[in-house]
Amino acid sequence: MNRSQRIARDVLVSLSAQRSRVLLMMLGLTVGVAVLSAVIVIGQGTRERIMGLVEKHGLDMVMVRAGGDVQIFAPQSDRGLASLVEADARAVEAEVPYVDLVSAVQNQRGISVVYEDRSVITRAFGVEPTWLAIRHRDVAEGEFLSESDMAAMARVAVLGVKVTRALFPEGGAVGRTVRVNNDPYTVKGVFIELGTDAAGVDDWDDRIVVPLTTSARRLFNRPYLEQIVFRVTDVRRVPETAERVRNLLAVRHGIGPGQPADFFVREPEDVEGAALETTSTLSALLLAISVVALVVGGLVIMNLMLASVSQRSREIGLRRSMGARASDISRQFLLEALFVALAGGAVGVAAGTVIAAALGAAGIASSRITWVPFAVALVACAAIGVVFGIHPARNAARVDPAASLRGRAA
Amino acid sequence: MIEVDGLTRLYRRGTLETQVLKGVSFRVRRGEFVVIMGRSGSGKSTLLNILGLLDRPDGGRYLLDGADLSGADDDARSAARNRKLGFVFQQFHLLERASALRNVTLPLLYAEQDSGDSTERAERALQAVGLTHRPRHLPSELSGGEQQRVAIARALINDPAVILADEPTGNLDAQNGREILEIFRHLVDGGRTLVLVTHDRAVAERGDRVLVLDDGRIVGEEAVPTPAAGTRSDAAGAV
User: Cβ contacts of residue A241 below 8 Å, gap of 6+?
Assistant: First the structure.
């Protein structure tokens, strides 16, 4: 061991011989770190729960539909509206902030899909590759559509599970060729099972999806869109983003104030956005409390260290007489503050995590335990130990050994 | 071993200035047991602190083992304290929460090189001062004489050439005081240089030479007459 390691070990041995003093010193910091880690654990749990809800209900998606009347449910028949075009989708993508993914969408009922002697009549969608992420869908087998499928107007399709089961009861759909309205399409993938929508009207498993270019030029052979769907990066900004899209499309479609629009922007219910808002306000408050507690904890350590420097001036003098340099003494006291702070942090992060996990288990809060609180506690406590340990350590190094050894008993 | 020439030391407290040392000169040869005797306030503790490199003189010259460290930085002076000097204090100055063994090993912390098995070295040092039992006891569980033995073992662990002792028997009863002085005598016989500060003439008479310090000056120097052979052997038998 080198000199620094020997001194570090000596500090640990000294601290372990005075546990009650160490406990007293680290108490404030422990409380601060406990609150901080509980906030992080609950914050991450809440965020995860909300993200789950966002995914499940598509709360970050806004849909623009062709046709101006208020549409509560999807139209029961395709009405051949010619109001939305792909340029509208590109304009939304280019001009509206907080929009990161956009897909133009065409769809049509009554499409026949045939494999050997089996056939179904289903609804076909023409979409862009971004659609998968915007609608929070996923493929169970094979792959989703790609940009090169788009560019090639490829005759490829991704099938819903019901279509797949009807055509391929034995499985193995991916790679086979089906006939869609009599043209051959390669099955590129199969969606995971999704079930019906909340109203029980739309059956999302009874679908096939092809590239938008293929549907526009080949399958449907028309430029008009039924929908534009886009994803908003921040769930809390959904309402204002929807409003921006409304205004943009009104301008593009030449619709003045008070005139009926030829499109309809449907945004998701904003209930969970409000919940997220409340949670983050509470987290900010608790975060502020824990920062205050951390600083107070640091000050407690500093004050007790300062008191300890004057109580232990004789020990300092003695160590100096044995050959300790001033820098060895300051290192000793700095390490003492650092070790106490780290011990306080370790106890605090354990306590905070346990409390948060208990609240989670009791159903009072969502909690998710990750490495984050541990890393934050380590960094915060190391910083506090050093910042609040420097002043006492400097004082300790300045103790005059000759004067300090003159006193009475050690 | 020690050469002191015209040492002066001035203390300032506010506007009050006290000239504690007013030009002190003497030499201590290697292997010599020199006692600095003086009343309280004569400047003997200040002188010992300067000899121990814990304080710097304002004037004059101090050579320790041929080296003048008065202008050296803290690191060099600390290293010299660690290697060349061992301190023994009146109040023992043991760490209360540390066992006898750990107290003895403390100077090894500040050595340049790692000393290998420090516990084994500490045990040997404790043996050298006749304290083989109770090495794991805390100072509060030891008698005064035992505590001072621990302190001497601590001073010896880095094998220093010079031991500086400040009233080492001041807190001990007569019997323990005699035993501690006997240990010192053995150390000197083994080749170590010892400078002991005291106000006690009975203690001073155990040295080879006594320097009498009064009001910051050496006012007398006397060789101690060889004591009657009987006394010396009696005390030696006690150790």
Answer: A62, A96, A97, A98, A99, A232
Which ipTM was obtained for this model? 0.90
Q: Are A204 and A120 in contact (CB under 8 A)?
A: no
Q: Could you tell me the residue ranges of all domains in chain B?
A: 32-57+79-238
**A410 within domain boundaries:** no
3-state helix, strand and coil shares in percent for chain A, rounded to the nearest 5: 55, 20, 30
> For residue B88, what are its two tokens?
């023994």
Residues of the domain holding A280? 3-53+274-404
> Chain B partners of A3 at a C-beta cutoff of 8 Å?
109-112
Strands A61-66 and A263-266: antiparallel
- A326 and B74 within 8 Å at the Cβ level: the answer is yes
- From A2, A325, A405, residue closest to B74, measured CB to CB: A325
> Under an 8 A CB cutoff, do A406 and B45 touch?
yes
Tokens of B105: 């090993």
| Measured distance CA(B37)–CA(B21) in Å, rounded | 14
**Separation in Å, CA of B117 to nearest CA in chain A:** 11
Assess if residue A409 is contained within a domain. no
- Give the whole-angstrom CA distance, residue A336 versus residue A330: 10
The predicted-structure confidence for A354-402, as pLDDT tens digits, reads as follows 999 998 888 877 888 888 889 989 999 999 999 999 999 999 999 998 8
Domain termination residue (choose one: A268, A286, A313):
A268
Give A-chain residues touching B75 at CB under 8 angstroms: 325, 327
Instruction: Give dist(CA B52, CA A246) in Å, integer.
Output: 87
Chain B residues whose CB is inside 8 A of the A324 CB are 78, 109-110
Candidates B40, B54, B112, B119: best to mutate against A (most CBs of A within 10 A) is B54
Query: Would strands A183-191 and A139-142 be described as parallel, antiparallel, or unpaired?
Result: antiparallel
Going by C-alpha positions, the residue among B54, B93, B201, B153 that lies closest to residue A314 is: B93
Question: Which of B213, B175, B176 shows the shortest CA–CA distance to B26?
Answer: B213
The conformation of residue B139, written as its DSSP 8-state character, comes to G
> What is the rounded CA–CA span in Å between residue A107 and residue A75?
12
Above 60 in pLDDT, residue A70?
no
Backbone phi and psi for residue B63, each to the nearest 5 degrees, phi listed first: -105, 125
DSSP, collapsed to helix, strand or coil, labels residue A172 as coil
**Spelled out in words, what is the top-level CATH class assigned to the domain B32-57+79-238?**
alpha beta
Give the Cα separation of A257 and B176 in Å (integer). Answer: 108
10-residue stretch averages of pLDDT, chain B, 239 residues long: 91 85 92 91 89 91 89 91 93 91 92 81 88 88 92 92 93 91 92 93 90 89 61 42
Closest CB to B87 among A315, A321, A407 = A321
Contact B102 A13 (CB under 8 A): yes
